[in-house]
Design goal:
A two-stranded antiparallel sheet has the order 1-2. Helix 1 crosses helix 6 and helix 2 packs across helix 3. The two termini are 20 Å apart. It has a single domain, classed as Winged helix-like DNA-binding domain superfamily/Winged helix DNA-binding domain (Arc Repressor Mutant, subunit A). By secondary structure, the chain is mainly alpha-helical. One of its GO terms (cellular component) is cytosol. This is Rrf2 family protein. GO terms for molecular function: DNA-binding transcription factor activity. InterPro entries: Tscrpt_reg_Rrf2, WH-like_DNA-bd_sf, WH_DNA-bd_sf.
């Protein structure tokens, strides 16, 4: 969704759920549901009718990657995680503890970094050709 918000900021107008769905190769219903989460956090707003659609409610420099992550319900960051095949196995327990500690530390670092990057930072990189 950060991708969509940056496009909206660069284009300066509104986008319909259908156009966003094409951009993301998904269904407009999925877009509406996802954008509703962003609307509930005050990042976008919507207008019905001809010429309506989704538009930014805040400037790109007021939205961080962490804001988007949180507005989307803080989806999982890592695909890997502890094993639950043998919950009574002490080896599995030891491995799981180490994996969980590493994932927790990595998550903290990643979320801190996401909080430092605004969508305006990324839009500037796009317009500068980076």
């Amino acid at each position: 969704m950060s991708h969509v918000l940056i496009h909206m900021g660069l284009r300066g107008g509104s986008e319909t759920s259908e156009v966003i769905a094409l951009m993301l190769n998904t269904n407009p219903v999925v877009v509406r549901r996802t954008m509703a989460g962003l609307r509930d956090h005050g990042y976008v707003r919507s207008e019905r009718g001809h010429g309506g659609g989704w538009m930014l409610a805040r400037a790109l420099d007021e939205i961080t990657l962490l804001d988007v992550h949180r507005a989307l319900g803080e989806p999982g960051i890592f695909a890997m995680g502890p094993s639950t095949d043998h919950p009574d196995c002490p080896v599995e327990g030891a491995v799981n503890g180490a994996v969980e500690d590493a994932l927790r530390a990595a998550r903290e670092v990643l979320l801190a970094r996401l909080g430092e990057v605004t969508l305006a930072d990324l839009a500037r990189r796009v317009t500068a050709g980076e």
